[in-house]
Amino acid sequence: MRIGAAALAVVLLVAACGGNGARARFERHLKADALLVAQCCSTMTTTAQLRSAHKKVHAATLDLASVPAPPDAEADRRTILTGFRFADTILGKLVRDIAQGDRTAFRRDGAVFRKGAGFRGFDAAVADLKRKGYDVGVLGR
Known about the structure:
Elements: H1 2-41, H2 47-66, H3 74-100, H4 103-115, H5 122-131
Helix pairs in contact: 1-2, 2-3, 3-4, 3-5
């Protein structure tokens, strides 16, 4: 019986500590991934920069997808991740359009990106995280 009580105490202690650790880990990844996306998407004037931006956005998307958020932030993480995935998809299409020399598709895909339908709810999710006390880094600017 003592072993069971001790094991339960350890589990509860780890769970209690893990909550703050999970939040810090989520914030760390969110801020790093958002910074990466913001930096690379602000300088896409050449084909090489566009390819590089796509690779970085793709990496940031995979990273954010791999990090669970605390329960109070999970819905916001999913919304932000949807925006990252949208950017990843469209940048991939733009890179493909350039490789194929398809200017019409490039203009069309660029217009889709600028309209930003895939970012629906993104700002509200960031605002919600800020309201809950999360440090969202460059997303909060």
